[in-house]
Design brief:
globular, Elongation Factor Tu (Ef-tu), domain 3, seven-stranded antiparallel beta sheet, Rossmann fold, 15% helix
Length: 264
């Protein structure tokens, strides 16, 4: 796990809408963008000028650019916090805590890696895809969205020459249907490892297909968090290890877990 660095003041470099319901905010910060930050970890932000929003907001790290000290976060407006976040201007200082949690396992020889994402869960796969490609691995992606106007991030995977399948629920872009309907072609590619991130209904349909093929893999779990560093116990899930079931904190022992250990 990366070290917790309290009271980092990051600067908003860019804050733009990238599709119908998602925004990309790029923050400049010397701490979180260090080499210690792993794809799959997250940060907790205080929304500036909003003292009424008492709790920090957790956001997955989409990717980092250590050379430029940049941190990329994709978020969807779902309430007052993210609405206020969408209004942050370039140059605004943001109180940031992180990196937090356990990120993706990053093998030295990734081989053929299948990245499966849905909606906002596509973003935490960006840095992972770049890492795999940089290590000489081949990236296969199956990405799910509701409709064409909500598709984002395809360019990131194209940049690493990934094999890309995009699905939309209504068939307005890419393949019609859900992610689970279009996994077979990728699963026939001698996949060495799979990574999954997205809404729970998608995750629950995808994981059994991976387990059927006995593919090693990891899943990043989404959950509402109070503190983000293991104190409040509001984000607990059941994990089975060595025949024993125990409760683990998504914010501390996760958010990334083995697909074979999570009790679905």
């Amino acid at each position: 796990m990366g070290s917790i660095q309290l009271i980092n003041l990051a600067t908003v470099e860019q804050n733009t809408q990238i599709c119908a319901d998602h925004h990309l905010i790029i923050l400049k910060d010397n701490g979180v963008t260090s080499a210690a930050t792993r794809p799959g970890q997250f940060v907790n932000l205080v929304i500036p000028q909003r003292p009424d929003l008492f709790l920090r907001r957790p956001f997955s790290v989409a990717k980092t650019d250590p050379e430029k000290n940049l941190l990329y976060i994709v978020y969807r407006i779902v309430g007052e916090g993210t609405q206020a976040m969408s209004e942050l201007k370039t140059g605004t200082k943001v109180d940031l805590m992180g990196p937090l949690g356990v990120g993706w396992h990053l093998p030295e020889s990734p081989g053929n890696s299948l990245l499966i994402g849905g909606g906002c869960g596509v973003a935490p796969l960006w840095g992972l895809a770049e890492y795999i490609a940089d290590k000489g691995g081949r990236v296969f992606t199956v990405l799910g969205f509701q409709s064409e106007d909500k598709v984002f991030g395809e360019d990131v995977f194209k940049a690493v020459e990934a094999d890309i399948t995009v699905t939309t629920d209504d068939g307005s872009y890419g393949e019609a249907g859900f992610v689970c309907d279009h996994l077979e072609a990728s699963l026939n590619q001698s996949i060495d490892r799979a990574y999954v991130c997205g809404p729970m209904p998608m995750v629950k349909t995808v994981i059994p297909k991976l387990l059927e093929k006995d593919i090693e893999g990891e899943v990043s779990l989404e959950e509402i968090m109070g503190c983000g560093f293991g104190v409040c116990l509001s984000c607990v899930t059941e994990i089975e290890q060595d025949g024993r079931i125990e409760k683990q904190r998504i914010c501390t022992e996760g958010p990334v877990f083995s697909i074979k250990e999570v009790k679905w």
